[in-house]
Amino acid sequence: MTSRERQEQHELETLSPIATKSVQTLGRQTPVPKCDMRTEFQKDRDRITHSKAFRRLMHKTQVFISPEGDHYRTRLTHTLEVAQIARTIARALRLNEDLTEAIALGHDLGHTPFGHTGEDALDMLLPGGFRHNEQSARVVEILENEGRGLNLTREVVDGILNHRTVCSPATPEGCVVQISDKIAYMNHDVDDAIRAKILGPGDLPQYVSALLGPTPSARIDFLARNLVEHSQNSTKISLSPDVAKIMQELRAFLSANVYANQLLHQKERLKISTMLQLMYNHYESNPELLPPNLTTADYIAGMTDRFAMKRFNEIFMPMAWEV
């Protein structure tokens, strides 16, 4: 019996009845030989972490544009926090940790540069709008690996595509990532907003601190425990109704007091929107300048913050004359 087969047997014997078992995967678009050491979902995790799109996350803004400081979150650190929270919850619920981790590591691969501002800008520019979850699925299905995609299992692609609140993941592991994403960003965005002096330590609504806890670590612990306790005897993965309501209110608070301000630099938001609009129009008018097999939206969404600024300067800023 191979290492993979032993792991698959262990899953069948120990995981929850509602967990997604590796041997029960719906498979890949293109079948490939099985690995002797890794399960199918472990292979997906490795394919994601070795992808170019994953490496670019380290230079993509999470919320704050070009922050002056090394301790603000990036898309990469956010992704790792989501994976850690999601694996802890999946383990407690006896779900498939490898599937959960793969979905978490891939869920934001399609995010734009410059955080919310960049996504809003592309959403306004594209005729059908822009949704980062759909772009993330496009990255793993088509764009990565020189246009061949990563050929992930259907369960991982589904979890990536459906991690937004308005979506419904097909697996309980996808549901865990969907909620873990919110647990992570709502708490670390508060932490970063306090670091940026947009919020003071006492600015959170009192009912939020009273129920969820006074610190990010306390709130994450409370929310993870609530999710486990409310889901462990159910076929549905969810927070308790009262806690889910508080989470919605916290999201509304952050939207009004953090995401809409972004260091109170509205001029910076306008600069970024204008920059992406100019680049979008430039590449739409000159498609021969795009890399092979990429649309304008693919190219811009895949840029890191610094690469976008570099490209903008090359296109629109005059170069110094050589004497």
Give a brief description.
The chain is mainly α. The protein has 15 helices and no strands.
Identify the CATH homologous superfamily: Hypothetical protein af1432
β-strand percent reads under 5%
Distance between the termini: 72 Å
| Architecture (CATH level 2) name | Orthogonal Bundle
Name of the CATH class:
Mainly Alpha
Please give the oligomerization state of what you see.
single chain
The amount of helix comes to 55-70%
Number of helices: 15
Radius of gyration: 21 Å
Number of strands: 0
Mean of residue pLDDT values: 91
CATH topology: Hypothetical protein af1432
Description of the structure:
By secondary structure, the protein is an all-alpha fold. It has helices at 3-14, 40-49, 52-56, 75-92, 97-106, 115-125, 132-147, 154-161, 172-195, 206-212, 216-231, 241-259, 266-285, 296-301, 305-316. Helix 7 (132-147) packs across helix 8. 42% of the residues are buried. The model has no long low-confidence stretch (mean pLDDT 91).
What distinguishing features does this structure have?
15 helices, flat, mainly alpha, 323 residues
